[in-house]
Amino acid sequence: PVVGAILIFVTSFMVMGGLKTIAQSTPDNKMIFIIGLSFCFGLSIDVVPNLYQYIPGWIRPFFYSEITLSTTMAVFLNFLLRLDEFYQPSHES
Known about the structure:
Shape: flat
Strand content: under 5%
Oligomer: single chain
Structural class: mainly alpha
Order of helices and strands: HHHH
Number of strands: 0
């Protein structure tokens, strides 16, 4: 019971800290999409557990945990949707 209570306490602070950070940063549309889609993918592991049963073995570890899948999706989508910012031509002369 003590470990469970500590886990709930720490998780609550982590979630609220993350939400506070997101709320203070005034996210743009891309960031809202990244956060929302990552959150949906994380929830899908619990809501539809058989959805990922045919995932290839080499990528299966990313689908064992909600946090792992959400974090992986957030990093991947952030990289994918912000590629245009990395490849802007430089205007230096």
